[in-house]
Amino acid sequence: MSVREAVIMAAGVGKRLKPFTDTRPKSLLEVGGRTLMERHLAHLASGGVERTTIVIGHFGDQIRARFGGGLGTMAIRYVENPKYTRGSILSMRAGLEGLSRAAVFMDADVLYHREVLHRLLRSTAPMAFLLDPTSKETGEEMMLGTRGGRVRKIARRVGSEWDKAGETVGFFVVGEAWLARAAAIIDDFVRRGVDDVEYEDALNVLVGEAPAEFIEVGDLPWTEIDFQEDLVKAGRILSRVRETGGEA
Q: What is the value of pTM for the model shown?
């Protein structure tokens, strides 16, 4: 594996999953007897990641108490986002603090075959995203538009005028050379008072400058968990993950 650093953005309130998130963070929701965070950390450790930063906010003390300072040889550190009720752009900024080498950034609300993540960890690109070309654009999913082998646009609607388009899993790599630029772009958003937006708004600026590659994962089972009905879907996806040996 090439990427040895990870950042899991797990600070959000998860309003659309109430009442489940009234007493716990979304990443501690269980599917098939394990929490989402347990799976993230197991997949990262099995992929050779040496340190994972978890950005915490909503009931963040529960995450800290549950997982402590490490899993096997993988160290875990915690960074707090005190403004976790604002946009996820602030969680990405918090996660960038203290990074000096390429890192994979991850949304905490995804259930997936471990190879989904491991394909990204093997990337040596300056930036890289995961793309599922089998997903259809509805305005709910975060989509990627690509041209000439590069990601050119990230938005909930990108249209069809691309070499290839599809849903992004919510995992991406920022290479060492682009960490400072990513932080500077977010800082500019904050200076302008634009902090109640998603981190993809900043990434959309960054891919205009950085050579961002994409890795297809349409052949692997995965799902994002945003609504109560997604928990039912996640159970079905987990069955497929287990059938294909995708649990760490």
A: 0.95
